[in-house]
């Protein structure tokens, strides 16, 4: 496999990891912002779904197109930095929206801001995965994806408690503005840090060839299974702040921030471990294992209290947020190198982000206008995730090595 020689692979890993930290940190704040609006503005539960569906729909619809555009572009690093700048600026919009009174104008404003945030988030994963994939060989690619993914969950673990801690000193709106400015600085660093990255020649070019290589039965099946897994996990994670605030009665405070942080801190070793496993084991079984573990952890969480519940929600994070090294490593087995970014955009966009739209809607459908049936909703989602885990190993084995496009024997 020909690699980019313009910057070192460790240089590429460092700046894509910084981007993962900032991008996923912002994404994690979306449910928290929805919970704050629901709690402070006495908004109905539907506002949580409105914000999440607006955000994930925008990201889902644009991921494939961003990925395909990036696969033909020589400016992947700058495109990724631009997406991080957009999502950072969008939280200034949430800052302004928090000043609106409860009502139609508030709901319209936060939905519009969520759409912009979703657009910004669409840039990161297909582009960053492609940069890491082309910078590392087969023997180290899984671990590199795991390191990169662990920085994403570190951002997810840091942003909510950081936001809540700063908000104790200044207002929540001022906190959003301060964090947005700092994140824009990170986007600028990524812009200049990856400015020298050159996408390696893959021996294949042209729009039609890339699309033909991506729209295969294997990749479409992977996209559908990803949507099921994503719906099961996101239906829980999006509503988790609301669950802690209203069902467990903790309110918007330190327990909420610490519980969310524990969920994502559990994912850091998970990303590293699953990054190693995809190098050594059949990736289909590794992906299925992570889906099954997440479903079982949710069932345990809703049945327990105290430290046991915290431990189980941490295990949920360990298994559920392993998607970057598992899913996108498997994607590269199904298409030649020339179509990696496009395929990443399809699976991450229509599969993962599409499932992210469905999952929160399932929760809302079950709970209605109250919270009495939220345990039932989480149980249904956990069973859905277990069903996806059973189906995952039944996928056909990929035929591409992921590097040169040479075929492997089908299993």
What does this structure look like?
The chain is an all-alpha fold and 411 residues long. The protein is built from 17 helices and no strands. α6 packs antiparallel against α12 and α12 runs parallel beside α15. The radius of gyration is 20 Å and the shape is globular. Residues 1-5, 203-209 and 401-411 have low confidence and may be disordered.
Query: What does the overall shape look like?
Result: globular
Q: Estimate percent helicity.
A: over 70%
Tally of separate helices = 17
Write down the overall mean pLDDT.
82
* Largest sheet composition: none
Structural class: mainly alpha
- Unreliable runs: 1-5, 203-209, 401-411
Number of strands: 0
Rg result: 20 Å
* Spatial gap, N to C terminus: 23 Å
Strand content is under 5%
Question: Element order, helices and strands?
Answer: HHHHHHHHHHHHHHHHH
Give the topology, please:
Layout: H1 9-40, H2 46-71, H3 76-97, H4 104-121, H5 124-135, H6 138-169, H7 172-193, H8 207-214, H9 217-237, H10 240-247, H11 254-265, H12 267-280, H13 283-302, H14 306-320, H15 323-331, H16 340-367, H17 374-391
List keywords for this structure.
single chain, 411 residues, mainly alpha, globular, disordered N terminus, disordered C terminus
